[in-house]
Amino acid sequence: MLILSYDLRGLFKKELTPEIIYSAVFNFIKKNKIKNFLTGTDFNKNNLIIADFLYKNFASKFIGILPTPLFYYEVIRQNKGGIMITASHLNIKYSGLKFILRDGNCWKPTVQDIKVNKLVKNISFSNNDFLSKSSLNFIDKKIYNNYFEKLKILVKPTEKIYVNFDLRNLFLKTSLPYFEKLKIFHDPSAAIKVESDFDNDRIFIYYKKTKLENDLIFYLLSLSPRYHTLAVPIYFSQKLVKDLIKKGKKIFFIKTGHYNFKKSYKKLGIDFGFEPSGHFYLFKDLKTESVYLPLYMFLKRYHKNLDEILSLNKDLGLIRLDYLPKGNQKKLNLDHIVQKLKSVFNLKIKKFDGFLLKGEEFYLHLRASKTENKIRISYEGNKNVLKEIKKIVFRNN
Fold first, then answer.
1. Tens digit of pLDDT for each residue in 308-336?
2. Regarding beta strands 229-232 and 272-275, do their DSSP bridges make them parallel or antiparallel, or are they unpaired?
């Protein structure tokens, strides 16, 4: 099934066919009056096939294999529209297209935009010249260098910091020489470990083998006087939201998805945005999202106080988990689950980007994933109550 929630994603060739891709790109160009555009991909070979297809059928310039946030930044820097070819965190059997306007905002295709007409039938991915080359041929060192030089100006690195990067991630591995510009050095024995997702638009930091909650990382970075207006989903830590408001920060609750956050950026004057899945939107600094900038800002300020941060992390009592039906086939009935929880715990319900349920000892947020058949659960409070909640969720599916 094609996914059109934030961008365009589907199983390569089976759902995301050449005809559908052609129709979507044609309408992206036509509706936004784009003469030529940039394209980039992650390391998925299927996405290189799509990049080759776009290069041969449209006025596109392929700028290489690069992390999604670097591509967004380059689109804004060159003041051109762009298409990032990636399915983000989904299995490599999936491919996807993220449509970016020259100001960094997203364009989301509709069902009509991907409708195949007679003129575009029987188009194929043929003569894939890109696949005959090594991936290293598609890494533009100049783009990486320019990006990290920009970060260097923003963060003004001082002392050396040692991090154990997960080198299974090809983008983290590729970026090691550039991290050194920020005085961040790879050390497999370091207590700080950094992981990322496939297209490098999410960041995860571990200390002494414990994952630091992204909510806490965002909270600590938000304390900077540089950021006044913040954007988070409604399931961001309620405890941290209250504290940020007390400290004079203005907070907007935004629906999940990069499309929604970027749409709200100029409209609401957002300085800094965040999604608990690992997305950090550095609007005031880069006009788009970034993983490397918040990583360095956090390390620079707190790398000597991580034992204290670890204690705060534990006290937060924030739990996030996904629930999948058995066999991952049955469609989840979220409304049924919410009504059952309401009756058992006598909860107040607010419907926004899913369901926010509040009790005296906890808050609970449930939402159906837009990209996978699962329920995403956010919980903050008494862990014993969570055990009862999980029984109800699992029993009803």
1. 999 999 988 899 988 776 655 556 678 88
2. parallel
